[in-house]
Amino acid sequence: MTAALLEEPTGLDDSRVTDPTVYAGALGDDPDTEISVAADVEATLLTALMWTDQHSARRILAAVEARHFYRPVHATIAAAIAEVAAAGNDPTPILVRARLSETGALRGGSGQLVMSALVTLTAPLDRPITTTAGMLPLAVHLLDAWYRRGYTGLLRRMEQHRLEASVEELGDCWAQLTRFQQRAEADWMARRQTLTRDRAEED
Fold first, then answer.
1. What does the angle CA 135 – CA 43 – CA 155 come to, to the nearest 5 degrees?
2. Would you put residue 108 in left (φ > 0), alpha (ψ -120 to 50) or beta?
3. Cα 92 from Cα 9, distance rounded (Å)
4. How far apart are CA 150 and CA 156, in angstroms?
5. How do residues 136-169 score in pLDDT, each as one tens digit?
6. Which of these, 78, 116, 113, lies nearest to 99 by C-alpha position?
7. How far is it, in rounded angstroms, from Cα 27 to Cα 151?
């Protein structure tokens, strides 16, 4: 997920809020905890992806995309991992770093942040590297958190409409956000089913 994906739409024009891939939603009542948990889950999953084989990585990345990550730096690294695996290579830290360099993600101040995060993810000091089997529940949790943020965002968006839109506009506002929620739910369910099916096959 990029930083832009974390921005909530402003005003009452919902013309760009028509695709669940564009709107990441909002945090709940305990944002500090949500951010901390999201960061831990994302970091642990990314580390595991860089120490597994391309087949296992591609199984996870068939359901999880960069846009599902809360932290922009994690989204950048996730995208590079996916590109390395899609090219038919094990997404090792060296190849991921090379891909980040090729795309210009390591340039400038933001590049320093990406490089620092990559070094930490490659050799974490605060946790063991998760096994391949352990990646599946992490990926499921990541998707669930993404969907919950989206749902929270929709509720806040409707509250904004309730306060600012005319009475005549409220029905259309609700219908539009309902259609958006239905698309997001279908997307989330399909991806989650892919992961849970993989877990059942492993069991």
1. 90
2. left
3. 37
4. 10
5. 999 999 999 999 888 888 888 888 888 998 999 9
6. 78
7. 10
